[in-house]
From TrEMBL, chain B:
Name by which UniProt lists this protein: Unannotated protein
The organism of origin for this protein: freshwater metagenome
GO terms for cellular component: NADH dehydrogenase complex
Major localisation: membrane
Family as reported in the entry's similarity comment: Belongs to the complex I subunit 4L family.
Compartmental location: Membrane
Family annotation (NCBIfam families): PRK05715.1-2, PRK05715.1-3
Amino acid sequence: MEVTTAAGGAFGYLWLLIGFPLAGAAILLFGGKRTNRWGHYVGTLAVVASAVYAVILLLALMGRSPEERTVVQHIAEWIFINKFSASIALQLDQLSIVFVLLITIVGGLIHVYSIGYMKDDPDRRRFFGFLNLFVAAMLLLVLADNYLLLYAGWEGVGLASFLLIGFWQHKNSAAAAAKKAFVMNRIGDIGLSLGIMLIFVTFGSVTFSTVFDQAGEAGDTTMTWIGLLLLLAACGKSAQFPLQAWLLDAMEGPTPVSALIHAATMVTAGVYLIVRSGPIFDQTIVASTVVVIIGTITMFLGAFIGSAKDEIKKALAGSTMSQIGYMILAAGLGPVGYVFAIFHLVTHGVFKANLFLGAGSVMHGMKNRENMRRYGALRAAMIVTWLSFMAATFAIMGIPPFSGFWSKDDIIHAAFEHNIIIGICAVLAAGFTGFYMTRMLVMTFFGKARWEDDQHPHESPPVMTIPLIILGIGSIFTGMALLFWGNIETWLEPVTGFETRELAIPAIVLEGVTLAVVLIGAAIAITMYRRSVAVEAPKGNVLVRAARNSMYDDAINDTIAVRPTYWLSRSLVWADRSVIDGIVGGSAAFVGGLSGRMRRLQSGFARSYALAMLGGAILVVVVMLLVRLP
Amino acid sequence: MSPSAYVVLAAILFTLGSVGVLVRRNAIVMFMSVEMMLNACNLAFVAFARMNGNLDGQVVAFFVMVVAAAEVVVGLAIIVTIFRTRRSASVDEPNLLKY
């Protein structure tokens, strides 16, 4: 059992982690044009300050014994009604510190990169303000000690994501993509809010520690529902099937946004939610099985889409979906997989940020054109970008000893331990990864130059290449560092639990098979794209066309959600106009018509009034007699 | 003669009076019919007072006479005014106050 300790010493200022970027966002967004000249430095400094403090916190945590590594800092009472209480309290433990480090360090590098990438954008200050806002919200999400505060951070990152996808809102496509992301995330958010309500009703609390302590006491059905609702939330935020359609469009945002939000951090919030709620998912086989299935489906879906897209960022987005599918799959495996989900999440955060920033660097040198069919032979023009992109590509493919090898291999192991079919799926998806990443690498950096005539590719300035170099080194060493030096398994064990089971197949054989499958995928890509790439995309067979259209997700959503909703709202309008307004207007007309007739009784003839009086008097007498009769 | 005969007479007079109010057009005749109804009531009051052996009914009869006198004053004034403007005492003609 963990011991929760009050904040003290280095932990006394946990709120500063969120405070720095929040203050940065406030200065930049409220400071107006005055901050235009130096705003980006403030924004970057805020995140770097958080990163430095996070490293200090990590060292302080490492100084404590494993049982005492959960630190809770109570900041303020937030909502306190009768039995219900939610406070603004931050909880730092082994799991959150991993996220905090990922967010602040990768985020810091992306901020530095953005200084160069957004140099010529008139709204660079606003961009940094939004980025800081995002970092603050994301840190709130991972540091919250209860579900309600997590929800606040969850919505905060959703807002920042919306603002940043639509950052170039003068482009219709960007504005539409932002709206699409926001609306699809709302669907997931419904899951989260209902899940939190159900958690409160079941356990009488929304605080993590209280809920998890009682997790075993609730009924199976309740736990299944909570699990499924939280999974819906995770699907929305992490672009998992069936809510995946927004992620590809989200690539309309500036590339650093895609790197930070839609690859490294925000989209992994769903994985965080599931791992954090591990004690809930451990109670329900149904929900965790669904988690595994969703993860597996998305793993293939993303890989499939990533293999066919010609825009470099969209291909990477498909790959992100696929890799998060891996993490969700691992998270669904229970304590066997939680650690590996987080492990892969961290290594993926590093190498995928690297890939996106590399893609951004390529686009920077290619007049912001994304079509890989018009790239080719860029390795000579952009040596640093090429080398770091290569490192990240090897990392995501899982070539030893690059970082992805260690984390993905662990997931494949855990999947095999769980179920042989899931394991085979994971290996096959690794083969897909090999294919689409090699395809991307070959189409961009190798082969013949297929540039348009006005292109003069050039390497990016140092402010962009230095983060690339650091991330490139990270892509090589993060896996080994976390596994051998950081002992991530034992580090996370007190929070997530950890168990290993013996596997029938020796680990080395499995690794060999996986590597062989990856290399086969890579070899196919090389043979297909090494010699020549058509400048215009060939028509392709049914599968290629489907993947190129993101498996027709928009059409499917249109058919099953958008059209019925339109239809429903139109019928509601009709019902409102004819039935509701009909009843209201009809009764008014009825009363009006009736009184029009009734007033004819006021004929002005005194004698008819007299007759009415007489009739009334007789009636009164008759009634009186009748009533008195018995 | 039993007191019930007076009550029957009162009922006949009242009926005659009300029929007069309803069927005659001339305001003066209607007015007289109203007087007849009032006096029918008076007769009934007095008859019941006699039958029950207390004076309440007779006292009320006096009240009715007073009210009838006051009503005649106001009513005749109205009729005279209408007659002056319209040269007629018909109650059907002044029907401007209607829907």
